[in-house]
Amino acid sequence: MDYLSLIFGLAGLWYGTELTIRGAVTVASRLGVSDFIVGVAILSIGSDLPELAIAIDGAIINLLSGDASDVVVGTAIGSSLGQIGFVLGVAALMSYLTLPRSMIFQHGSVLLGSTLLLGIFGFDGAVSRTEGIALLVVYFIYFASLFGDRRKRADPDGDDGLIRNARAWLYLAAGLGIVGICAELTVSGAIAVAAALDISEAFVAVVIIGLGTSLPELSISVGAAIKKRARMSVGNLVGSNIFDTLVPVGAAAVISTLRFDGNLLRFDLPFLFFLTLAVLVFFLRKRGIQKGEAIIILALYGGYVLVKLSRAF
Question: How far is the C-alpha of 190 from the C-alpha of 205, rounded, in Å?
């Protein structure tokens, strides 16, 4: 039953996210913004609703004298690793991913900085309410700068898949409702599975939930890459990783102080920083991510998962 709860929760998170994204993209397209901005600001937030919902639910569990800190922090880091390692690698196998150097420096520095900031705040073994607020403020400043710097506007009528505004808002409401319900199933299922298998909740969060909640990004980024919209594909992953390292942990810490597992701080977070740096170097030196670089990225992520498995069992 615990396994079914986890599987059903992840499936519900994916479906609810899909509904939410459909509505969000429609509204954003009406406003007219570039592919990269749609990816980094709109799609990334929509596809990261599962991580945020899990974090808030975990923080509420903490308030009720439980301890879901490992699930909250582990999911945020695991999702970021799944996106930058697995999803980006698969998307790059489908299409040549490129970005202008100015975008790489601008958004890449925020990517690395957000990971470093999370490590600094968690260095003492906990993320406090004040630190949680700081994480959220950093993200909101970054988000505001995106729209202050936009140059290219998208054609609001260029996508045959647009739906009517009223239906878009309905999708948004229904999607958010499904995500909220299924987040509870996912968190409780993960804790129960970890106990049944006698493995750490952090491992379940980083590998199983982290990869599971990356399914929306996989669908969006691979679809965009196949349609030759590389900037939307990369933008979705860049925005998702910045969001994941700042907002879920920040929001949860505002509700209840989070314990930061030492293994996550010593191994998982540094590996996320290293993998992100490697991806940025590929973008700069190779002028993009091609099949060769994609295989290297996937191999690095695969090696990380194997190490986690060997430690867990």
Answer: 7
Distances (CA, A) of 117 to 40, 98, 132, 145, 290: 20, 27, 11, 19, 30
Q: Looking at the structure, give the CATH architecture of the domain made up of residues 2-150+165-312.
A: Up-down Bundle (1.20)
Looking at the predicted structure, is the pLDDT value of residue 256 above 80?
A: yes
Q: Is 211 a residue whose pLDDT tops 90?
A: no
Neighbouring residues of 60: CB distance < 8 A, sequence distance ≥ 6: 255, 256
> Is residue 231 very low, low, confident or very high in pLDDT (cuts 50, 70, 90)?
confident
Q: Which of 37, 25, 82, 48 is nearest to 251 (CA)?
A: 48
- Residue of higher predicted confidence among 11 and 215: 11
159 Cβ neighbours under 8 A, 6+ residues apart: 29
Burial 92-111 (b: 16+ CB within 10 A, else e): bbbbebbbeeebbeebbebb
pLDDT at 313: 64
- 47 forms beta bridges with none
pTM: 0.79
